[in-house]
Amino acid sequence: MRAAVLHEIGQDKLEVLDDVESTGFGPGRVRIRVRATGLCHSDLSAMAGVLPQPAPFVPGHEGAGEILEVGEGVSHLKAGDRVVVCWLPACGACPACKRGQTQLCLAGFMNAGTPNFKRPGGDVFGFAGTGTFAEEVVVDAGCAVPIPDDVPFDIAALIGCGVTTGLGAALNTADVAAGSSVAVIGCGGVGISAIQGARLKGAAEIVAVDPVVSRRESALKFGATRAISPDELPDAKQQVTGGEGFDYVFEVVGRSATARTAYENTRRGGTLVVVGAGALDDYLQLSMFELFFDEKRILPSMYGGGDVLRSYERTIALWRAGRVDLESLITHRVPLADINEALDQMRQGTALRTCIEI
Length: 358
Known about the structure:
Elements: E1 3-5, E2 15-17, E3 21-22, E4 29-38, H1 41-48, E5 57-58, E6 62-70, E7 82-85, H2 95-98, H3 107-111, E8 117-119, E9 122-126, E10 136-140, E11 144-146, H4 153-159, H5 162-174, E12 181-185, H6 189-200, E13 205-209, H7 213-221, E14 226-228, H8 233-241, E15 246-251, H9 256-264, E16 266-274, H10 288-294, E17 297-300, H11 308-320, E18 330-335, H12 339-348, E19 353-357
Parallel strand pairs: 5-9, 12-13, 12-15, 13-14, 15-16, 16-17, 18-19
Antiparallel strand pairs: 1-2, 3-8, 4-6, 4-10, 4-19, 6-7, 7-11, 8-9
Helix pairs in contact: 5-6, 5-11
């Protein structure tokens, strides 16, 4: 089968090969024919070595498709079922799951160290234990979440990561208060989803911050009340909040520099929500005095900060009701053969989400 493979960490191009085979099928596992997958910035981060991932590997973790085959013991799925790939499944038995914090379950991360594919030259891993830049993937049954027939594969793929992460940051983690002021730093697919979440919660002012003009223009269409470049943030802070700072600031870049900027633009007693996935060695510096004196809440948000399956259901309900716009998040479409074009679109900031059609 065909799959896009990164041979070594640090390379900036993927090679689309036709000699890749999905592996690991057996009891408790399912084989999925991938139909659509989104390109998430986390895929680029893994390719660059910012996020830990063994190589060679097939990137992609935001996918949807249909079940080809189910292994022994899998009773809730059957061949032909339409599913979204969940890269962070809940085991239901660990302490985090028992506390209701299923987004903190580590079972999915354990899959990342097991190869999902093989080639004549050896094993190939799948990013985050999945690897959806491939025609087929074998995953634990818990990673395959059934979707209704009226949800297209491309929309379902977005729900599998970016939309759930951004919406959840506003709805679950921050629980944005109606009438509040919000700033979102980084307005790709996840940031735009956070903007939609803040709008749903009734935020009065939503300021989108991004260096790319096209993303700023898109943010206004999705609910931002104003869109600015990073160097315009001080003026916006003054104009919107009288210089006090925003009630909520979402950092959706994954860098300590932007997290520090977010902190400085959060009002005393306000909330900084860290959504971006950053590097292990990129440290955010805060003084003990400012932590005490400013009493700002710093809330990391992992995969939307809530029960993933419930978040999927909620997003589908909001999409059906026309309360969130998911179709417009897909600004580009490319076939798997042109995957490197999608990578360029992400790096240049010209795409909110590129759908890779497989």
